[in-house]
Amino acid sequence: MKKTILLFSILSLVIFLTNCDSTTEKKKGIPTATTDTSSQLKNPLEAGQEMAMKTKAVLGKYLVTAIQDKGTEGAIEFCSTRAIQITDSMSKVLGSRLKRVAVRNRNPLNLASANELSYIQEINASLARNEKPKPQLKETTEIYTAYYPILTEQLCLQCHGDIKADIKPATLSTINRLYPGDKATGYKLNELRGIWVVEMKKGK
After folding, report:
1. For 164-177, how does the pLDDT look when each residue is reduced to its tens digit (9 = 90+)?
2. Helices 44-81 and 169-178, interaxial angle, to 10°?
């Protein structure tokens, strides 16, 4: 119960700081497809960061509800059925393509591409040097692509930590049931869990 309350407090703070507007959601709990233009005047790296944090806030709100209803196992079930759906809906809201990817992925749809893998390798190298990881921006003639690291926090370890020390048996059973090919356990604190990728069209 104490862990649930702590998780609720932290994620509620994230939602507040990222200024998530609950009016952008339908009654079913999916954001509407009204394009958000609030990031268009910022430079691409800042704009992408803002979009990623807004999407994280929306996901966090639903994750909290899932945990309150069904515990950590509820969070796993939520991620398996809703996380990509909500991220895609936020892409429409924000007028850009957003996704979360990893090398040690849980959902097969979240596997990093070759370009994304290159950034992941750079971040892992910087962490090995005890350097603070930095976002990265690439561009073509039509698109900006921004990358942002996702580091493991203490609460992440409940689903992504050591299977003997951090993850409860019931949680591990749910992970194995929903993700038979799971690669996303065994993480320690402040390791690179994955990255946000934000693709923004130029000239908006």
Report:
1. 999 999 999 999 99
2. 100
